Amino acid sequence: MLQIRHLDVHYRGIQALRNVDLTVNQGEIFALIGPNGAGKSSLVNAISGIVPATGEVLFEGQPIARMPAHKRARAGIIQVPEGRRVIAPLTVAENLELGRQAAGVRGSDTNDLDQVHALFPVLLERRSQLSGSLSGGQQQMLAIGRALMGRPKVLLLDEPSLGLAPVIVKEVFRALQRLNAQGLTILLVEQNAKLALATANRAAVLEQGRVVHQGAADALASDPVIADHYFGRAGAIA
To answer: Does 60 map to a domain?
Structure first.
């Protein structure tokens, strides 16, 4: 689904990513873990086209490195940003419709809405509520629902558990697993390394802009070096 080759990203003279190579297969959950400042968000933003990068980005075998962000979204690469970024003065229903329009989806939205409401029933209950008045967990559900309205082929999630209560994190991650079981490819950036590796099929560890480990998620989870570095800080959710 995604192939990243020799990817570099620079911010104001600082190199955020260095020669990154990754492959995300169709139908899998691929997790990116690592310390703060490792370049995880930079990689997701480079794939989305939000930040400039050098190197190769292939989507379904086609080069997209020169494609602007809005065209990548319309091709099926849709990101749920860190911090959710719902449009606070708009209602839940209006935020969902915005996701559909931004991705250029045409035709009826009935099936898309039904899918989102089945995944997150609270969004149907609060469809007329201003999104800025939702709880943090409800806003995260709305941000994911808004992305789903664009009919993604690959969903990029940047720190979906950030700032959420453990019970809400469980609910959000169960929803991601349901989506993946339906065939959706997911690239997951997550500070909670134990949770990420328990959810993903494969994963990579970034440190100082480089991929330092990569492989099956269960193999990385059982690696004592990775456990020592990340599981204590990230915590665990049973």
So the answer is: yes
Q: Locate 202 and state its tokens.
A: 């494969």
Question: Residue 1: which CATH number?
Answer: 3.40.50.300
pLDDT tens, residue by residue, 136-175? 999 999 999 999 999 999 999 999 999 899 999 999 999 9
Other C-beta atoms closer than 10 Å to the C-beta of 35 total 17
Q: How far apart are CA 169 and CA 175, in angstroms?
A: 10
pTM (2 decimals)?
Answer: 0.90
Residue at 108 is within a domain: no
- DSSP 8-class letter at 86: -
Sign for the pseudo-dihedral over CA of 5, 201, 223, 206? positive
Beta bridge partners, 9, equal 17
110 is written with which tokens?
């009935």
Task: Single out the residue of 45, 54, 39, 97 nearest to residue 72, CA to CA.
Answer: 45
Per the domain annotation, does 191 fall within a domain?
no
Residue 229 domain boundaries: 1-76+196-238
Residue bearing tokens 């808004």: 146
* Residues in contact with 223: Cβ distance below 8 Å, sequence separation at least 6, in sequence order: 213
DSSP letter at 12?
T
Number of domains in the chain: 1
Residue 163 lies in a domain: no
Single out the residue of 190, 142, 157 nearest to residue 45, CA to CA: 157
Look up residue 164 and give its two tokens: 């959420």
